[in-house]
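Hey, sorry to bother you again with one of my protein questions. A protein chain has come my way and I'm curious about its shape. It would help a lot if you went through both lines with me. I owe you a coffee for this, so here goes:
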Amino acid sequence: MGFFDKLKIGLSKTKKALLAPIEGLFSSFDKINDDFYEELLDILVSADVGVGVSTEIVDSFKKVVKEKKLKSASEAKKELMSIISEMIGESEGLNLTSNVSVILVIGVNGVGKTTSIGKIAKHLTTKGKKVMLAAADTFRAAAIDQLQVWADRSDVPLVKQSEGSDPAAVVFDAIGAAKKSGIDVLIIDTAGRLHNKKNLLDELAKINRIIDRELPGASRETLLVLDAVTGQNGVSQAKEFAKAANITGLVLTKLDGTAKGGIILAIKRELGIPVKFIGVGEGIDDMQPFSSTDFVSALFDAKKEVETTV
């Protein structure tokens, strides 16, 4: 099964929460009026698109319906899909152009951060990249052990020290090893201590200073991992982490386990941070670069068009 098919299956809960009610809305109303718009707004908010973004979608849809004088439900629904697609925007890939490029991965414990690192490492190796992992989450021994498991599964080397070691020292050693081994991409795991923003800020600043000094001019990505199941709480997490780090992209995990896939719209619109990877399963190949085109196509994969007049 290809990833697009997995994506369609993985988005089934979101489709049930978002697409099915929209289909029902278009088929149950004789015309588009204020009651229609109000119900559409409720549907979008329920799918965790967010109140602000949902309102923006409905307002844009109102404008299009009026300007184009839309009569059929199928035409109106296509316009709604187009509005949502435009809000998600174009996909953005990773910037990994230097000899040793760096991916710094952040996120609270329990969101699938370490698992995501392993899966991204596997994806990059299939693209011909030489990848190395660095276990800079030294706050928990379990984090180091778990990362070792994923390094083994992805068949990539891991640089680590003992629990309680200085994370910056781990990064220093990893950069040295990466240079010596001709590594293309160094992926660094970090501790997820959002509850203590000062420690997080200080730790990330120290790690970034090491990278600046040892790899001047290197391509850099700072990826925040979010659990899609948390919905709007994920947006709040992103806002807090953005205060401590220059986030370049998001990794959205567990889309297959939630009806809250609308969070992608909320994050993109409210924070302006692109989603770069999405996960829709437990398998090592079930995380792939985010494609806005595939996401919208999979989300709106209706079995039949509604042809009633609205």
In short: The chain has a mean pLDDT of 83. Residues 3-90 form a domain with the Four Helix Bundle (Hemerythrin (Met), subunit A) fold (CATH 1.20.120.140). The chain has two domains: 3-90, 101-290.
